[in-house]
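Fill in residues.
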């Protein structure tokens, strides 16, 4: 089974969440605007958390390679 790398899937999901959130903000009434703002904030926080985990994971891989040498 051919799987996409997690960074690419994450990037796509963040773009979709931001687009939907902005659409809610522009087109919606007060409740949809609130939902849209929360969706944009949640996607930004989720993106930062995953990027941090990815960077930490990369550093871990590098240090494990150093130990082997």
């Amino acid at each position: 089974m051919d799987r996409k790398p997690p960074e690419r899937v994450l990037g796509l999901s963040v773009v979709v969440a931001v687009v939907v959130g902005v659409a809610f903000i522009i087109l919606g009434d007060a409740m949809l605007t609130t939902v849209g703002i929360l969706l944009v904030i949640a996607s930004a926080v989720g993106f930062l958390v995953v990027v941090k985990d990815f960077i930490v994971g990369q550093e871990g891989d590098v240090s494990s390679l150093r130990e082997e040498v």
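The chain has two helices and no strands.
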